[in-house]
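Researcher: Let's do a round of design. I'm pasting the structure tokens now; please hold your answer until I've finished.
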């Protein structure tokens, strides 16, 4: 993985009609999927500039710095975009649980089979 020639810039990503793009957050060491959150152009820039994850809270309609209340900041290792430029993947070093429930990952439940 790494940078490719002809790479997209933040403004070149494909955002939805609300100006948002989904971001999957993955532990850089374990590769566990921690969460999915929404970003806009400003939060993508802040994440890249500051080296910690920033998201757009749809429920609060404001910028959200992961860990601002819990202290569970996610240090950015690398930020990737997919082949279509419409989904992001953030590899992070988490300082604690990703989920507001206190679980390490937001993906701790499965459908009964």
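Researcher: That's everything. Go ahead.
Model: Designed sequence:
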């Amino acid at each position: 993985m790494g940078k490719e020639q002809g790479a997209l810039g933040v403004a070149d990503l494909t955002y939805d009609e609300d100006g948002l793009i989904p971001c999957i957050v993955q532990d850089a060491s374990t590769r566990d999927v921690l969460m999915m959150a929404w970003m806009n152009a400003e939060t993508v820039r802040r994440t890249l500039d500051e080296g910690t994850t920033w998201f757009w809270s749809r429920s609060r309609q404001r910028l959200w710095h992961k860990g601002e209340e819990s202290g569970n900041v996610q240090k950015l290792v690398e930020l990737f975009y997919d082949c279509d430029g419409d989904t992001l993947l953030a590899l992070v070093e988490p300082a604690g649980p990703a989920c507001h429930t206190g679980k390490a990952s937001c993906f701790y439940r499965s459908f009964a089979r």
